[in-house]
Amino acid sequence: MRHVIALDVGGTGMKAALAGANGELLHRARRPTGRERGPDAVVDGILDFAAELHAYGEKHFGEPASAAGVAVPGIVDDKNGVAAYAANLGWRDVPLRELMTKRLGGIPVALGHDVRTGGLAEGRIGAGRGADRFLFVPLGTGIAGAIGIDGRVEAGAHGFAGEIGHIVVRHDGAPCPCGQRGCLERYASASAVSEAWAAAGGGPGADAADCARAVASGDPNAVRVWGEAVGALADGLVTALTLLDPRTLIIGGGLAEAGETLFSPLRDAVRRRVTFQKLPTIVPAALGDTAGCLGAGLLAWDLLNHSDRMEEPT
Question: What is the spatial distance between Cα 66 and Cα 1, in angstroms, rounded to a whole number?
Fold first, then answer.
C-alpha cells in the first residue's frame, strides 16, 4: 500500500504517522524529543524515529514510504528544507530535509512550520474544508497563525507570515520577549490567561481551563480576566481580518477547548468591532492534536503529486 511518513515535532514530544493517499492515518506513534540531551540529540532522535517508521511501513504495508513530511517549530526555511531556529529545541540552521532524505534512502522530504502545517490540514480536511480563504489561529503557549489561500498556506517572503500573536493590541502594554510591548499573545494566549487568573484569585498552579470553569460558574474575577482576554483577542483578529479578509476563521489550541465559553463572547466581540469588513465564520478547529501529523502527510503527498505531474508526457 502506497503511503508517506508524517512527523510532527513539538517542544517536548514527537507525533508521527504513516498516512495513506486519502489522508487516513494507517499507523501512529509518539516519543519524546529528548531535548534535555541537546540539539544534536534531538536531530538524531528525529532521524531515528523516521527510520523506524520507514522500516515499519515496508514490513507491514509491503513497500517503503514514498515520501516524508516533517513539521517543526520555530523559524523554518521550507523552500530550502532548513530548520533555521527553534529556541525550545536549541537548534540553528539544521539541514533537516537533506539529513532525512539521506537517512531514508533518497525519498523526497517536505519540511514545514508546525503551525502552518497544522493550518494546512485544518483548511483542507478540517474546520476550513471548502473555504478558499481561511485563517487558522491556535491559542496555546503563544499565538501564531496560518493564512490559507486556495488550498495552500502562505509562508511569506521570509517565512514569518501569520505571526499575529505579535500584533500590538495594547500600546505601552506588557513587555513581550519579541521586544515589543502590548503584543496579542501577552493577553490572549492560554499561558497569558493562566497567569492572569492565578494572580486574580485562581491561586498558584491555576490555568486557563480553571479560569474557563470559573467563568461558567459566574466567578466575577474570572469573568473579568476572561473578558479582557477575549477583548484583546477580538482586537487582534479584527486587525488580521481587515488585512486578509478570510472566509473562515478557525480557532484552535488549548484555549479553544473552552468551547462556547470562548466562542460565544468572541463572536460577539468581533461583530461589535467590524465596520466595513465582512464578518467571517468563526469556528473551532476540528482536528485536535492530529492536525500537525495530518498536515505533514499532506505536504508529503503534495510533493509526490507535483512530481507525478512533472513526469507526465506532454
Answer: 10
